[in-house]
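Reminder to self: tokens first, then the designed residues, so the page reads top to bottom the way the pipeline ran.
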């Protein structure tokens, strides 16, 4: 996690700190925050009920025990999800013409951008690999996307596991979904279909932090 030094200012008989506006927005902090004293220091989090994240060991154990059914996105086929605009804090950046499900694969010369969300055909698979057609977010860098015939993606799922450390909640087509960082994979760009939208800047930043925590240590 990134550490930033902030100055403690005197406010009457108390002390206070100033938090950058982008940080407050990223963590959805509004007029009130909850302060918790821990053995490591003071923790600030948004007001409201908190979901305690499992440890990496606990997350892995729950994932293995659940044996997730990755056919869940099949239930959204034909429900209009592919026609809905991507919910974004900056709608002008991601406005898209309505797209038909199962459109043709992207053209070899079509630009693929990092943090785009697209439908992808992930069959055939083996074992517990993700399969069928489902939304994925592109996480490989644009320098690689421009030159290679493969891209690195993470799939989205509508089955929520808020306590799992390997998942990031986002809004997809107006519904809450999770980016499954634990199901990261490299696929041929020919598997990618129509663009749905893009992550917001805050969602992209949160995804980068999670990938660094999960794979960078």
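Designed residues (217 positions):
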């Amino acid at each position: 996690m990134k550490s930033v030094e902030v100055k403690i200012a005197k406010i009457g008989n108390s002390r206070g700190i100033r938090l950058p506006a982008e940080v407050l927005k990223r963590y959805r902090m509004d007029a009130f925050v909850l302060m918790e004293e821990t053995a490591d220091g003071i923790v600030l989090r948004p007001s409201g009920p908190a979901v305690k994240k499992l440890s990496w060991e606990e997350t892995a154990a729950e994932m293995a025990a659940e044996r997730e059914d990755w056919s869940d996105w099949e239930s959204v086929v034909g429900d209009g999800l592919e026609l809905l605009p991507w919910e974004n804090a900056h709608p002008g950046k991601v406005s898209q013409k309505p797209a038909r499900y199962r459109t043709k694969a992207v053209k070899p010369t079509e630009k693929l951008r990092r943090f785009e969300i697209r439908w992808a055909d992930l069959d055939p698979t083996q074992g517990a690999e993700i399969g069928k057609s489902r939304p994925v977010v592109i996480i490989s860098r644009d320098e690689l996307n421009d030159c290679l015939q493969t891209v690195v993606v993470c799939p989205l799922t509508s089955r929520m596991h808020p306590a799992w450390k390997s998942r990031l909640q986002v809004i997809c087509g107006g519904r809450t979904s999770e980016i499954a960082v634990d199901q990261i994979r490299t696929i041929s760009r020919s598997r990618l279909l129509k663009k749905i939208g893009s992550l917001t800047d805050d969602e992209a930043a949160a995804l980068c932090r999670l990938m660094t925590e999960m794979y960078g240590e």
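Confidence is low (pLDDT under 50) at residues 72-103.
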